[in-house]
Design a protein that fits this description.
7 helices; two-stranded antiparallel ribbon; 18% strand; elongated; 7 strands
Length: 221
């Protein structure tokens, strides 16, 4: 167990924080109202705040310096104090936020598309597998594959489909849209998203060909 490091009287500024170096001992530099900079034996610096909830002492870490500056740490500290004053638990709140970030990162379009594809491919024809693999790898993944499913909007998909149409034609673009719709439908069934952003995007026929719109399908006279 680490010993409690002695408190230091250095006034924290961006300049003094940057100048602090390892001493071979743990160091603690107080800022204000419980916020402090913790420095490990090796010189790793992190912003921390000690508080009590239900009689228990807890510590919340706001991040490492220099990734989190002194001014940013003070803002996070104020938010934590406000949360505590309202009956919350700052450390618990950050754990929930961390889990939510991890959930977003693991629920990208590519990740959900793979689950959807793997669940169907063994029961589908070779043509079905080849077609959807093509649409996913060539058209959908490069544009939205790394985006969390919940952050993809109808407008984002619309812009992607317009690019596909301009390169590969309207029929291909509409088939790519249908693949995306199926991925989002799967995401809804698994409670990854609340609605399918692909369904409001329709192929609109015009004299010059086909383009996509967020409105319903219509035919020009």
């Amino acid at each position: 167990m680490n010993k409690i490091p002695p408190k230091n009287t250095v006034k924290l500024t961006e300049k003094t924080v940057k100048a602090l170096v390892a001493t071979g001992n743990f160091q603690k530099f107080s800022d204000e109202k419980g916020l402090y900079l913790y420095v490990t034996k090796g010189g790793l610096k992190s912003w921390r705040y000690d508080y009590r909830v239900g009689g228990l002492r807890k510590t919340v870490t706001f991040g490492q310096y220099p990734d989190v500056s002194l001014s940013d740490a003070r803002k996070k500290h104020l938010e934590a104090r406000a949360n505590l004053a309202n009956g919350g638990d700052p450390a618990g709140k950050r754990k929930v936020e961390k889990l939510e970030r991890q959930n977003l990162q693991s629920n990208t379009f590519d990740a959900i598309a793979k689950l959807w594809y793997d669940g169907k491919s063994s029961r589908r024809s070779a043509v079905w597998c080849q077609t959807h693999t093509l649409y996913l790898n060539r058209h959908l993944s490069p544009g939205i594959g790394n985006l969390p499913l919940v952050e993809i909007t109808s407008k984002t998909l619309l812009e992607l489909l317009e690019k596909v149409r301009s390169i590969s034609g309207a029929k291909t673009a509409d088939r790519v849209r249908q693949t995306a719709v199926q991925v989002f439908d799967y995401g809804r069934r698994k409670l990854k998203v609340t609605h399918n952003v692909g369904r409001p995007v329709f192929c609109v026929l015009v004299d010059q060909g086909c383009h996509f719109s967020l409105a319903g399908p219509r035919r020009r006279n």
